[in-house]
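Title: Request for sanity check on HTH-type transcriptional repressor SmtB prediction

Description:
We are preparing a figure and want to confirm that the structure record we downloaded matches what your pipeline produces today. Could someone re-run it with the sequence below and paste the raw structure tokens into this thread? We only need the token string, no images.
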Amino acid sequence: MNQDDLAVKIFKALGHPVRFKIMKFLCNGPKCVCKLNEEFEYSQANLSQHLRILKDAGLVKNEKVGLEVHYRLYNDNVKNIVDNVEKYVLDYVNNIKETGLV
């Protein structure tokens, strides 16, 4: 897979509302799957599919801690992606309000 293909895979993974919410939740630190299940009321199977897609895109990684599986962002650059998207959206929305394009 070349760099462009990986970039597209990352954008596709982040393009789903549930996966973007998972990423925002993980920006606050590692979480066990049980906490993710509490936060997102989806079936375990559905949540696992979303986590697998994020992991395959290189956005999250997991580790076994005792009997639990914990997920975390792959590194701080991933957090920067999420933060930058949120900043961009805020700027974009504010610009639309200021210019009256709403």
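Thanks, this matches our download. Residues 35 and 70 are 9 Å apart (CA to CA).
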